[in-house]
Write a structure and sequence with these properties.
By secondary structure, this protein is an alpha/beta fold. It has one domain: Transcription Regulator spoIIAA. It is built from 5 helices and 5 strands; from the N terminus they run ββαβααβαβα. It has a 5-stranded mixed sheet with strand order 1-2-3-4-5, sandwiched between helices. Helix 1 runs parallel beside helix 2.
Length: 123
């Protein structure tokens, strides 16, 4: 399940919980596009819990929408990723190193307070 919520004028919260199918991926991307309308210099809190690999259809939907995803990420400056899976946290930090102008920091679920504080730091 993928849920997307706009929790402040410049903040988006995403939660990926468990398995993700293609219809959920498409609905999540549409919700993200809607939530990011008008956002500049935004921040995102991305919780990944009960992770299982997305279905082939969900991965295909994501790949087909990479140009839109890239444009959406241009509206976000900071992203805190919270996951209990170590390789996901490492991958997120690596992604932050290779995407110019997009800072990503990862946290374990026990450090959610630190993630919230990091998102509130001035850019």
């Amino acid at each position: 399940m993928l849920t997307v919520r706009k929790t402040a004028p410049n903040r988006i919260d995403l939660t990926l919980d468990g398995e993700l199918e293609d219809a959920e991926m498409m609905a999540g991307l549409e919700a993200l596009i809607t939530c990011l309308d008008g956002v500049e210099g935004g921040v995102m809190l991305y919780r990944i819990q009960n992770f299982t690999m997305p279905s082939f259809g969900a991965l295909t939907a994501e790949i087909m929408n990479l140009p839109s995803i890239r444009r959406m990420l241009g509206r976000i400056d900071w992203c805190a990723v919270i996951s209990d899976v170590g390789w996901i946290r490492m991958a997120a930090e690596f992604e932050g190193m290779v995407i110019p102008g997009f800072a990503i920091k990862s946290f374990s679920p026990a450090d959610e307070t630190a993630a919230e504080a990091w998102l509130k730091e001035p850019v």
